[in-house]
Amino acid sequence: MYETLTVIHVVFTSIALLSGLIAMIASPKGSRLHKKSGLVYFYSFIGVILTGLLMVLIQYKDLFLGITIFNSYLLFVGYRVLKHKHAKSNWLVWLMLTIFVGNGLLLLFGSFRIDDGFWEHGYKWSIVRAFMALLTFYLAVKDFRSFRSKILDKKEWLFTHMEKMLITYISLIAGVMLRLLDYLPIKDSKWLCWIVPYLICIPLITYWKSKYKNKLG
């Protein structure tokens, strides 16, 4: 059962990687190709999330569950803001944000867990948990301020959509890197797959957003 879910998970991941790449390079944004590929990305990522959750139910891994919830929130906000644009935040948005923050707290608490293999390899994954928790809090604070703001930039929905979807794409890349390292003689570095892509890409996304805002005036 677990092996079958893994295959399905990989298929959904592959579709999401391809459709997400097409959506990113499609020009202009909002074109038919961008919308169609973006929709395929959204639904294939739902497949990634659902199969991931089922896999967690069979073989529980708190970090895997935390990352799945992390991406579920980003996918939800990224899609909702595209569909509703200037709509005010409702109870569902606040509920999702609360779950998102709660997930961050669980990741943070999990980083302090010390077991028999902690000093051999476990501490590396504790660093990953702590990093994902801090990233969660960083994004949560940004969203909290945005949800409460009464004065919204007319294009803020666009930047929010792009930011959230791009970060979910980073997670896909991190997951693929993790699997590829299984076939390389550097398995001890696998934990870096959940840190390095975010450290490289999120500053680039922030820079790109700032540049794009200035371009739109």
In short:
With 217 residues, the protein is mainly alpha-helical.
Description:
The protein is mainly α. It has a domain at 61-90 and 147-216. Helix content is 79%, strand content 0%. It contains seven helices and no strands. The protein has helices at residues 2-25, 32-58, 62-84, 91-110, 118-148, 156-180, 196-216. The chain starts with a helix and ends with a helix. The mean pLDDT is 86.
Number of strands: 0
The secondary-structure element order is: HHHHHHH
Compute the separation of the termini in Å.
53 Å
Shape: globular
Number of helices: 7
Class of secondary structure makeup: mainly alpha
Radius of gyration: 18 Å
The percentage helix is over 70%
What topology does this entry show?
Layout lengths: L1 H24 L6 H27 L3 H23 L6 H20 L7 H31 L7 H25 L15 H21 L1
Salient structural properties:
217 residues, mainly alpha, 7 helices
